[in-house]
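[scheduler] slot 2 assigned
[scheduler] job type: sequence-to-structure, two independent chains
[scheduler] chain ordering preserved from manifest
[runner] begin chain α
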Amino acid sequence: MYELITAVSAWTIPALIAFIPLYAAFRKVPVYESFVDGAKEGFGTAVSLIPHLVGMMVAIAMFRASGAMDWLVEAVRPLSDSLGVPGEVLPLGLLRPITGAGSLAFTADLIKAYGPDSMIGRIASTIQGSTDTTLYVLTVYFGAVGIRKTRYALKVGLFSDLVGFLAAVFVSLLVFG
């Protein structure tokens, strides 16, 4: 069974890549022209997203450079210690909703310092897979389609990140602890 799943996994993407243009050609869709039109539209979308991305990156850099993240982690540490949450993963809980690359780099640093099989490494990896980059999603995707009122989406997204963070920590402690 394992060999079958491995073979299907290895051939699924190449088969889809071959199937889609062949099916389009069979349906008499101008494949190359459609691709070029889509690429032109994608380039315009990418250019319109640049101001949103620059603003988000500046805000993240200011948050970290000001020491606000360190202050916030220390303020929450007594509560996290009483819940059994390792203080080392708290910055990851703050970074993950803001930046995917920054949180991944922080996770890599935790794994490098404590090891992938340590409780901190396991919790960090689980957090990385259980939460999302909410502010990035709101900035990029909502900005791309012109949505300006993100009040409820922001609240729900950040609440979901909090629940994902707590669930990742407690499930990791339950399974590996």
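[runner] end chain α
[runner] begin chain β
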Amino acid sequence: MADLGKPQNTIAVLQKYNFNFQKKFGQNFLIDSRVLDKIIEAATITKEDFVLEIGPGIGTMTQYLCENAREVVAVEIDRNLIPILKDTLKDYQNVEIWNEDILKVDINRLAQEKNQGRPIKVVANLPYYITTPIIMGLFESHVPLESITIMVQKEVAERMQAGPGIKDYGALSLAVQYYAKPEIVAHVPPNCFIPRPKVGSAVIRLTRHREKVLKVENENLMFRIIRASFNQRRKTLVNGLNNAKELNLKKEQTGKALEQLGLNPSIRGEALTLQQFADLSNLLCESDYSSNEIS
């Protein structure tokens, strides 16, 4: 089968099937073989690996994965792409094409069946509108993951990697860094896609932490504190948490906990590190903050 990393081959396939791009699926197909090679290299795909690909499109990246991996399952939500994938991938015996919504796939079961429960590698060119739900769904469901190597909007990649005091730093940065080490491995301009997106993209690798990097008594509480602190970014942390009805935290409680951590009670959430958010939630767990409110 012709290499879909070459624009003329992608155009030929789209014309052959008279394919119409679906805006609701955020479809932009990669047409640059150098970027495809970078993704394979960044994901460190070897012949021992089982790979889950999310959003294969017409099979461009899938071809490269099949060449380098032991086995690939490609999950595509758009049923109009299934006959195209069966055509573009017909020369490969090590791939299965699933017409499913990735948010409804039992990935734990998939890892068990295809990789004996060992950590799997995920590769994806994600539509921008659904990037965060997919990534957080993978992490929060505690799927056995080695890494996620994904193409996302450049700003989203920068947000995942950002640290305290940077404009892009927020709840997504903290959530991703709690579970994984993020590293941007390539910047990809709009002209590398058909159709051209309006924004630049980036390839980011999220390497799952083998051990938990922090001791957190109540993950649910920590992430609720994080979200509340960034929902009202310009307010002090004390006021932001006080205004979050679902937390039911008094200003005095938060202020006292911050002082115990050696932090100024007028500090904003954007100045706290992940470790400090963990320490704060642990202190609030230990205080008079009743267990039925933090479960």
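[runner] end chain β
[qc] chain β: The two ends are 54 Å apart (CA to CA).
[scheduler] slot 2 released
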